[in-house]
Amino acid sequence: MASETEHSLTAPPEVQAVTKPQWYTGSLVSPSGAMTQKGILAIEPYVTYNQPVGYIDSNGNIGPLHPRTKNITNFTMIKYSITDNVSVQTLPTFSYRWGGHGNQTSSGVKFSDLPVDVMWRYLDANPDRFIPALSAFVGMAFPTGDYQRIDRTQDGVGSGTYTLRLALTEQSTYTLPGNHALRLRMWATLRKPLNKAQLHGMSSYGTEPGFRGNARAGLFGSAGFSLEYGINQKWVLAMDIARDWSNGSRVRGVMKDGSIIDNMGSPSGDWLAAPAVEFSWSPNFGVICGSSVYFAGHNTSLVVSPQCALNTVF
Questions:
Q1: What whole-number distance in Å separates Cα of residue 218 and Cα of residue 177?
Q2: Could you tell me if 276 and 33 are in contact, meaning their C-beta atoms sit under 8 angstroms apart?
């Protein structure tokens, strides 16, 4: 995610005088905290291809996955700094899917639910005392994505619920031998759907034509850390390790034939690693390319997700 240029303050004064500030784009997965200067606008478009390669069952065993639904996704992080400590952020997301039942595709490019967050950095970093920057997020995801009355299974990209978004982030920067910068981020997120999704017909909850009822999505969230190692001012090696988890959704209603269903989905979780390379040709412009790889979990797909992003700060 987009990030500001940072100066390392942990080196002795005589080294700081000749050390260039490290340039970052931010790693692939880690959320960045509130920006550090009023009036700054950051825009970071991502392009991601998701390729399922298998399925992990409830016991952690890996097996084949059919069908293998693939997608190309574009999401753009747009962040604006209202003050030196408070920022707002949104992530409009578009996707196209194919490879489902009957090799079905989306009916077109689909727009997902829209999140909007407010970020507050409540503790400024002080590297000399090993004090990190700490930020808190609060926001809402609005149900803008198609989720019911769909004609194709691949068109279900929304949840149908207003979802409360909470997060905490930590960021600290260190200087390693050879004057190489190392940035650490840690984060935890929680998402809570606030209402039931009313369902009619086919939906993103797996219901069939003629169904009438509702769904209550479960809590979900993530936690993880990232490391970004500066080879030099322009080149950075990045690695994210993250854990995603989700409680099952409960679907209740009446089928087309009049039968009543009341199903509770199984909880799921996964572990992923996301190695990447960052290159910045100025403090305000850079690119990052890498891949997220899901390598463990339960009741979840194994997915490989190559992705690239352009980081711009104005």
A1: 46
A2: no
Quote the pTM value.
Answer: 0.89
- Residue 70 pairs with which residues in a beta bridge? 98
Provide the CATH number for the domain formed by 13-313 in this structure. Answer: 2.40.160.40
Beta bridge partners of 16: none
Beta-bridge partner residues of 296: 271
Residues 6+ apart with CB under 8 A from 107: 151, 152, 154, 155
Selection from 5, 1, 11, 2 nearest residue 174 by Cα: 11
Note the pLDDT of residue 17. 37
CA distance from start to end of the chain:
15
Question: Residue 152 has which token pair?
Answer: 């194709």
d(CA 25, CA 16): 22
pLDDT of residue 4 exceeding 60, the answer is no
- 181 is written with which tokens? 């910068």
Domain ranges of the chain: 13-313
- Pure H helices in 33-176: none
Would you say residue 104 has pLDDT above 70? yes
245 by Cβ neighbours in 10 Å (0-12 / 13-18 / 19+) ranks as middle
Report d(CA 84, CA 264) in Å as an integer.
45
CA-closest candidate to residue 50, choices 296, 293, 265:
293
Q: Are 288 and 274 in contact (CB under 8 A)?
A: no
Q: What angle do CA 70, 71, 72 make, to 5 degrees?
A: 145
User: Per-residue pLDDT tens for 246-286?
Assistant: 999 999 999 999 999 999 999 999 999 999 999 999 999 99
> pLDDT class for 2, splitting at 50, 70, 90?
very low
Element (H, E) at 15: helix 13-16
Report the candidate in 217, 146, 227 with the shortest Cα–Cα distance to residue 184.
227
Structure tokens at 285: 């412009």
